[in-house]
Amino acid sequence: MTIRDKVIAIIAEQAVLDPSDIRMDSTLQDLGIDSLGLVESIFAIEEEFDISVPFNANEPEASDFDISSVASIIGGIEKLKAEQA
Question: What does pTM read for this prediction?
Fold first, then answer.
């Protein structure tokens, strides 16, 4: 399973959607994920990939992690994994 597939699976689970319903240009808001769902998604991603996501739930706009779309989240995780390697 690729990073992309795993992230889509985590987001789909939070959104209570089928992974096939998740588009790369979808925003979390489009998918019906609220701020609590976002935090849960970030925790699940950190656990799944053994990384620390630079995201502050209290100040999402001040975070270095782009959560504007599914594609940007995947890109951010790929970058974090590459830096870790």
Answer: 0.90
